[in-house]
Amino acid sequence: MKLGEKLRYLREVDGALRGLDRELSQQEVARLVQKELGKSISQSYLSQIESGARPHLTNSTRMLLARFFKVHPGYLVDDPEGYQNELVSELGAIEDKLDLWLVSGAERFSRDPELHRSLLAIARHADSRMCVVLLGEILENAGLAERLIEVLRAPAAASGRKQRRRS
Fold first, then answer.
1. Are residues 69 and 102 located together in one domain of the fold?
2. pLDDT by residue (tens digit) across 21-30?
3. Do 95 and 70 belong together in one domain?
4. What share of the chain is helix, strand, coil (3-state, %, to 5)?
């Protein structure tokens, strides 16, 4: 992955982490760096980095962006040709993006507690992709979703009735 791609990815992730439904713009990054770290970086400099016109960062800029995005400064360089991150498979990268999307969606639906909780539960699951695929399979079977929710909510309703009787 090239430095410019990494910077675009960090803007995307940071936007989601800040509760936006989009990536941070280069201008927003420049403003937030000034506001949060008291240092300046221009939007045009960020644009040059992302476009590849400026293939390397100065050490001070690398340290500044690493502090802002909370990554190791060594991340902010081009990966060597053919480099593969052995700890993250292609499927793992897809799952990370899915989890990020689910968390972002949960924040967008924070006014719907059930939906918010459900999206976060899927994102936190060890295999969130499988959870979404399972949901698709459930919905493909007519009536199964309704029956499952009825069965799964029955114990909660029963315990609520028991507590009301004790009162």
1. no
2. 789 999 999 9
3. no
4. 70, 0, 30
